[in-house]
Amino acid sequence: MTITMDKSEITMGDNVVNADLFTGVFNKAQMIILILNTDGTIVDFNPFLLKLTGYTEDEVKGQNWFDMFISKEIKSRLSDVFNYTNNKGETDRVVNDIFSKDGSVLSVEWANISIKDKSGNQQILSLGIDITKRIEYEKLLVDNRNSLEQLVSERTKDLEEVYYSSVESENRYRKLIENLDVGIIIFSKTLIVDKWNQAALDILGFTPEEMTAIDFISNPLTFYSEDGRVLFSEELPFFIASQKKAPVKNIIVGASSRISKNMKWLQ
Questions:
Q1: Does 56 score more than 90 pLDDT?
Q2: Which run of H or of E encompasses 58?
């Protein structure tokens, strides 16, 4: 569809658009409306371009768009887009930076369409939306995501180091217990036998399977005080320690195994 426009009349195909309506939109739109000749000369623009960039109308009109607003680094790429629009009729979602008067950089997303003026000369109508804040927000999201990923990675590494360190400590702890001549039995919070060393098995005359079976419900040991009295479960040193949550020392008890029938005196 061929679009022909000037300030008095806009023709879109066979339709004539109300010029007053277009002028109202042109002057009040919160987006850049820009008309360029095929050589990049600025023919017309709306007030929003001036508001956004800080220039005056006299400073902008008649200037070359690419020389005034576009950096040298991207001028070649945008010239290709410009020529493509001239040849193919339209382009959209073109994002590039422009310079404002104070030197600050604005990011703009463009839709471009080829039009003709009243004399039939080809021009480019460009509509631009300022997306500077959106770009900054997206960059902030990416930075935050990268920071979060780095933090998770660091914490994961820390946890792995703690885990392997604890495993190493556990292995050293097990080896220490296994090599001691003193019998050691470690109970769980529910007072079920959790760990032991070979010395404990030798002293009590138990197999590992028998040691695992020790608890307060089916206890294969009978414990005695030094005067020969049978001790109840709540009188045993490991029970007292679990209740008081403190060490119990220098208590002597006799342990008679119902399995081996041997009596052992333990401290």
A1: yes
A2: helix 57-60
Cα-based angle 200, 203, 205 (whole degrees, multiple of 5): 100
Judge if pTM exceeds 0.70.
no
Scan for tokens 């007053």, then name that residue.
20
Distance CA 56, CA 54 (A): 7
User: Which carries the bigger pLDDT value, residue 197 or residue 214?
Assistant: 197
The DSSP call for residue 182 is S
Nearest to 95, CA basis, from 84, 81, 85, 83:
81
Output the CA angle 194-196-199, nearest 5 degrees.
Answer: 165
Q: What is the pLDDT of residues 155-205, one digit of tens each?
A: 777 776 766 677 677 777 777 777 777 777 777 777 677 777 787 788 777
Q: For residue 88, with 0-12 CB atoms within 10 Å meaning exposed, 13-18 middle and 19 or more buried, which class applies?
A: exposed
Q: How far is CA 194 from the centre of its chain?
A: 41
CA distance 35 to 116: 10
Residue carrying the six token digits 């061929």 = 2
**Which residues are bridge partners to 222 per DSSP?**
256
Measured at the CA of 57, the angle between CA 51 and CA 59, to 5 degrees, comes to 105
Residue 259 backbone phi and psi in degrees, to 5: -90, -50
**Residues near 259 by beta carbon (within 8 Å), at least 6 away in sequence:** 205, 206, 210, 220
Token pair for 213: 């079976």
Averaged over 22-26, what is the pLDDT?
74
Question: Which of the pair, 57 or 255, is modelled with greater confidence?
Answer: 57
